[in-house]
Amino acid sequence: MSGSGTTAGDDPLQTAVWRLRSRGCWTDAAALLAPHAGNAAAALERAGLLVERCLFTGDGWADAEDALRTAEAVAQDDEERGGAACERGRLAYAATLLRVRDRADEARSALGRAAALLAPTSPGRPLLDFRRGLVAEHIAKAPQAARAAYRRAHDGATAQGDLLLLSFTWHQQAGLSLREGELAEARLGYSESLRLRVELGYLIGTASALAGLADCEPEPEAGRLRAEARRLFRLLGGVPVWLAGQLTASVAPQAPAPVSGPPQGAQVTAPRAVTKGVQGAAQGETPKAAAAKPPVQKAVPPSPTQPEPAA
Question: Residue 300 in 3-state DSSP?
């Protein structure tokens, strides 16, 4: 499950699900799909929403497990079984990352099973590649393997026009570039991630993109970006949980300005213009369910120096 917030014909149900999901109302979005849980696609989407809630909030594990078992039970073919295995791997990855329980072996096994079930041309392949990259980066601590997986996911998302997944592949590759000291590449990746999320109205992912971009900018721009990230983080009730340490810790040493521009032909969105769009998205029409804040977190968030570990 990645999704861009739109479907062919602007399906009203999918539009409503996206609006709730993009503002962190995963339980309400899943409730809209509950009457369709006998359908394999709907069951998998519902499970994906509740697994995503675990990853962003550190809570709701039992609900996600129940929804995932339902999706596994109603799957009829390799594509559907592969999708369920991919979500199973993400749930195990989330539990390991947030230190709820070490399920690293289960994460690798489930994602490997998904790779065996999904055909090379399957529309679920780019998302699977991305999640395997997350495991390589955050659990196996293998950045080169992670980068290769992210590139495959990026190419696949580009071919499919999956803009939300592209925002994640840009973000993760930017994090790797930042750790390697490639500030121009990192700034490009975070800028593109932020631009896509603002365009899609993906509010719950905007604060992390702002925080990542702040690490690539000199002051006073870095401070302005972090302040906007903190505002959105508070607005959403402390979601995503892994961002708490980064936004509440002391201001890190100022990053030097990039000594060279982005690759030839690349377009970098102006951070000030993008964050102005973020403010508009935050003040726009929000479903009533969005007023409900995520429950109190029980998991331990990752180190604040880690790039965004989601999707």
Answer: coil
State the DSSP code for 100. S
Q: Regarding predicted confidence, which is higher, 298 or 197?
A: 197
Whether the CB-CB separation of 183 and 174 falls below 8 Å is answered with no
pLDDT for 246 equals: 83
Min mean pLDDT across 97-106, 107-116, 202-211, 295-304 is at 295-304
| pTM listed for this prediction | 0.81
- Burial label for 134, CB within 10 Å (0-12, 13-18, 19+), is buried
* Contact (CB, 8 A) for 207 and 233: yes
Please give the single-letter amino acid code of residue 292.
A
Residues 6 and 307: their CA atoms lie apart, in Å, by 27
Cα first-last separation, the chain: 8
For the residues 240-252, what does the mean pLDDT come to?
Answer: 74
Is the previous residue joined to 240 through a cis bond, with omega within 30 degrees of 0?
yes
> Exposed (0-12), middle (13-18) or buried (19+): which is 220, by Cβ within 10 Å?
exposed
On the 0-12 / 13-18 / 19+ scale of CB atoms within 10 A, 188 is buried
Length of the chain: 311
pLDDT above 50: residue 85: yes
> In the numeric block, which tokens belong to residue 302?
């990752």
Cβ partners under 8 Å of residue 198, min gap 6: 206, 274, 277, 278, 281
